[in-house]
Amino acid sequence: MTPRCNPFAALLALPAFSVAAMELPEIVVTATRTPLSVSEIPAASAVLTREDIERLQIKHLPEALKTLNGVDLTESGGPGKSTGVFLRGTESDHVLVLVNGIRIGSASAGLTSFELLPMEQIERIEVIRGPRASQWGSEAIGGVIQIFTRRGSTGSRAYAGAGGGTFETYSVGGGTGGVAHRTDYHLDASYFTTAGFDARQPVAGPFGVDQPDDDGYKNASVHARIGHRLATGVAADAFLWRASGTTEFDGNFQDETDFTQQVVGAAIGFTLTPAWKLHLRAGESRDESENFAPNGTLASRFDTKRQELTTQNDLKVGRNGLFTLGADFRDEQVTSDAVFAETSRENLGMFAQYLSALGAHRVLASIRYDDNQTFASETTGGLGWSFQGMSGIRFYASYGTAFKAPSFNELYFPDFGNPRLDPETSESYEIGMEGVQKWGEWGAHIYHTNIDDLIATVFDPDSGSFFPDNVERARVKGLEFELSTEIVGWQLAAAASFLDPENRLTGKRLRRRVEKSLNIEGYRDIGRWTVGGRLLAQGDRYEDAENSIRLAGYGIFDLTAEYSLGRRLSIRARLGNLFDKQYQTADTFNSADRNLFVTVQYRKGG
Predict the structure, then answer these.
(1) Domain 7-604 sits in CATH 2.40.170.20
(2) C-alpha distances in angstroms, 47 versus 89, 174, 385, 410?
(3) Which of 177, 195, 371, 498 is the Cys-Cys partner for 152 at CB 3.0 to 4.6 Å?
């Protein structure tokens, strides 16, 4: 049975932004902005560790997200191609993405380019499902995905790997890290390249596309992180993560993008008294792209920058209470060859949260006020309760509101944007049960989300043009089930999701959403071998809002194997889409055929 963790003792014992909170699977920081046991948050969560990433031999972030319950993806071709992430059936821009506490993503498009973030430098991924706007602000309607990059741990460690496979795909990478006195560090670099496959089928019509060529992708990335702790109770941390490269795709007006994804941040924490911790964090994220026409000329350029500063106070109240009070300031800027009516905006958010432990009961209450240059203000709140029973079964219930601010494209894009847009807003309810038994672990979650003022593109007959407006409403109901156990040496895990995503105005299913999804994974250690497999099965989806273009459901099966050549050296192989299933998650966009990738890996230390 997983050991219980007192959240208040954990918070007061750990330095600010401590790596210990990232290495223990039962502890998450994303749900409440403080280290907290998974068994004590009134929400459904998932954690993907570095060990999981290596066992599954995941090379791309979208592949990692596919393994998590409640997360669905649409992919417009192979690696490096545009990827939409739907968390609990909400829109692809209704998920907040953080890297080490710093918000990332394009301010112009309002989306995060998951497909361009390399896996080699990622230590851990936390996913909290359900609204978290009262902690983090805009975008956290469906939930929050937080990525933690590698960090040095006790004892030196190093890794290096090189591999190759189908579609002329090659990768190489390595890194080193450790702890010297009170300073921890980690340095990493990686390179990935693939010739790819034809991203899109021919499309007829006046806006048709017919480019029967392979669409490649290249990504070079570097990462550095350093932390230092003083005996006086002060802890500091700083990092840099940068990826740049080129991705090709099929399009009449643009078919290649040179990109840069970069995030930098620094944090410092002070233990002012045994009951008071002060945290300060500053960071900047950049999403930059130059897009080229088929003839090689520059077609467009979009560079966005988000800068933020956060202060957070965590105060122990009595024996079993924790009060969090803070504020964050964010400045977003857009630089482009397109002439936006406005190119910057500021947001000031103030948040408060109270967490109380009353015997086997936990109560979490939170509220946040956001003052934005664009839409004046928005107030969100949340209330959650959980109860840990004697039999290892936990019950929880929660309620929360959330919002998503309009993007710069929706507000100000030339000849399209609508500066009168309001934020999209939501209201969510959830109940759940989870259990830890001798034979394994299980969970069941039921949720209901209403979303109002959804932004959709409408046609104005007077002007003969299209523009975005707050005209849509949606309702999403869902069930989630999870189970893990061990049978004759096999570690097995299964997750199922049942979704009812409806446009409340038309009664139609929301576009590109699946109603049923099943994920089964198993692996076993056999001497020097570790073998495993994974099945992903999903139902059909509709490409359009009218539900007239149906994409069939599918099932794909992947196999993995690793053979240890010694204490530090191993060879790994992953056979993806074993049965060569032809399927699409976005209309006319191809998915990978059967594919093989083999890696030689060196690893020293943890």
Answers:
(1) yes
(2) 20, 24, 21, 33
(3) 177
Helices (H), 265-343: none
**Quick check: 286 and 304 in contact, CB under 8 A?**
yes
CB 478 within 8 A of CB 500: yes
- If 0-12 CB within 10 Å is exposed, 13-18 middle and 19+ buried, where does residue 582 land? exposed
- Decide the pairing of beta strands 143-149 and 95-99: parallel
For residue 45, give the nearest of 21, 26, 58 by alpha carbon.
Answer: 26
Q: For each successive 10 residues of the chain (606 residues), what is the average pLDDT? A: 36 30 59 88 94 95 96 96 97 97 96 96 96 97 97 86 98 95 95 97 86 96 96 92 97 95 97 95 98 96 98 95 97 96 97 95 97 92 94 95 97 95 97 94 97 93 89 97 97 98 97 97 96 98 97 98 95 98 96 97 86
Q: Which of 56, 53, 67 is nearest to 532 (CA)?
A: 56
Annotated domain spans of the chain: 7-604
Question: Alpha carbon of 124 to those of 16, 56, 91: distances in Å?
Answer: 18, 14, 24
How confident is the model over 11-50, as pLDDT tens digits?
333 333 322 233 333 688 899 999 888 888 999 999 999 9
Encoded tokens for 204 = 């007829």
- What gap in Å lies between CA 56 and CA 560, rounded to an integer? 7
Cα 62 to Cα 80, 83, 223, 560, 604: the distances in Å are 10, 8, 20, 18, 27
Task: Decide: residue 176, CB within 10 A, 0-12 exposed, 13-18 middle, 19+ buried.
Answer: middle
End-to-end CA distance of the chain: 24
CB burial readout 433-460, b (16+ within 10 A) else e: ebebeeeebbbbbebebebbbbbeeeee
pLDDT digits (tens, 9 = 90+) for 261-289: 999 999 999 999 999 999 999 999 999 99
